[in-house]
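Hey, resending since the last one bounced:
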Amino acid sequence: MKFTESMLRDYVETSMTAEEIGNLLTMTGFELEEITEVNGEKVLDVNIMANRGDGASVIGMAREVLAKDESAKPTDLYLRAMNGFPLSDMDSRDIWAKASVAIETENCTRFSARVFEGISNGTSPDWMQDRLTKLGQRPISLLVDLTNYVMLETGQPMHAYDLDTVAGDRLVARQAKAGEKLRTLDGQDHDLNPDQMMIADGDRVVGAGGIMGGEETEVSATTTRCLLEAAHFVNTSVRKTRKEMGLQTEASYRFERHVDPEGTVGALNRFAELLADAGGPNAVHGVIDIYPAKAERNEVTVRMDRACRLLGMEISMREAQAYLTRLGFEILSSDDNALTVAAPTWRIDVIREEDVIEEIGRVHGYEKIPEINPEGTTGRGGVHGIYRMVDDAVSSLVRDGFVQSFSHTLGDAHPLDAPGMERTILRNPHSPEMAHLRNSHLPNLSATVLKNGQDNVHTFEVGKLHKSGTEWHGLGIISCGNFESESWRETDKSKADFFTLKGVVESLGERLNRSITLAPSDSDERFHPTRQATLLSGRQVVGVIGQIHPSVAEATSLPEHAVIAEINLNDLFGAEATGDTFTSLSRNPAVRRDIAFVIDKSVAYSKIEDSIRASSAEVLEKMWLFDVYDGKGIPEGQHSLAIALQFRKHGNFTDEEANQVRDQIVAGLESLGAKLR
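The structure tokens again:
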């Protein structure tokens, strides 16, 4: 929020410079963004936190300065502001004959108004135009400038209506009706719905409550009668309507952060006296004020021994009471250790003991916390195993040529969402595209592939996923195109496929000391029905792997050859570790034998692996598939597989022994229907 140095000094007498005031506000929690000089005057810009709407006004900033700086003194204007800028014409006997207001929605808790007649809506005073200009606001007319200026001073948004254009001289705060429309002051037309809170007259909607007025009832150079509205609207209602209408205004900024419901009449009175000072007419006697349920103050009890313990410094009861009183808190009762306070209506963020302790601490000064050397002994630190596994998984995939991606945890429904897992829906999302917590990394990884714009993309993401209040560490992997760099030797065999990613996942398991095996599957609709598998560690299901389904590829614009995998790292961490085993180095060389055979495509490769291991467990060091062929000469529904076998044992391995083991393996494969080529 921006304010000029002179505006603040209207409310506070202090010897501090603008820079010192900025530093003081920073120490109280309102961080100074910058100080600029505009037309010879300092303009301060401070950051207002989302829960501190009371700071979005000059009076709010003055209150902070007075609370923090004991040498600062309140001006008469500040004291009048604390009493609601009292005027002598508060009797409402005349005004109800001129206009009326009503509340027909729970999203408006107070509706106040004043009427002004005999107006000449010319230009505002030079001093006011000067201050508004320095704050980046364009002077428009006397009435509009006054509403903007009083809002900057008090934090209470207001709106001026040309009373001659208000049907029935009556305003009503209500929900919009289906089919109603509103053209706002910026010339934009809006289709309304019953979830939106509006201001209406006897005929139509004339403004979006707490956001922006309507074009049909705006004040102009010909306005002679004005109905001035100052109301209090529920912040969640304003935020929702503002998002749906696509508007962002100074008024909505304040209402979303909370505006004091007790301040409506005071703001109207301040407007009336400034209008009179500018040579304008006096207001019609009286104030219209509909206030069905007075705002309640939060009462909190604070234990001073606990406050000192939490803050790490000694603060006396007398000091605490003084700090809280200067901030507008009322001391209801106190004893030797505890005091009970009522928070002011502009501080709805103060609801518990810790909140009041924070107020005491920030006024006393966190910079006064004494430096104390730590005492006692410290235990040995460590990292939980799941986080170590996450780090190891990242290192493993980077080593295999994958690039780590980082994306937003929020998103929308997507064809690659995990099946059977409903997303956790946010109550008040920033946008429809950010309405769910992710339950899979694959949607964001697919977007990464598309944005990359390259044919060869191999990437992964690791992070927390969510489902029905449960979260876990998930790993998503996607691979498209060639693994090898461009070369004259490049062939289709260098393209990533199901088996390539299978090898990556198996290597990952080895580096994480977990066995990862594949079990046939055809139930995941995201994958090709014959090119997918469930990932197991022991008997625990830990993930899925497969080639993307053609229909999903079309819906997401991904290439059909893309292969993807997803692993639940929490489940993998909970699986039995394989452990590290030591095997002494053999002095003898390994022996290799290759076998090629034709087998039905319906036979899972995992069964082939299991058969080979069962036939040669003692001497088989490793095996790998190096060729798959299903072209000319191969019967329909079958394919040819070529597998390399590497044998090793202590002592010499003769050709006769190697051939004998090979024959055992072939016999086992024949039991699966394989035919040696």
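Residues 591-676 form a domain with the Alpha-Beta Plaits fold (CATH 3.30.70.380).

Sorry for the duplicate.
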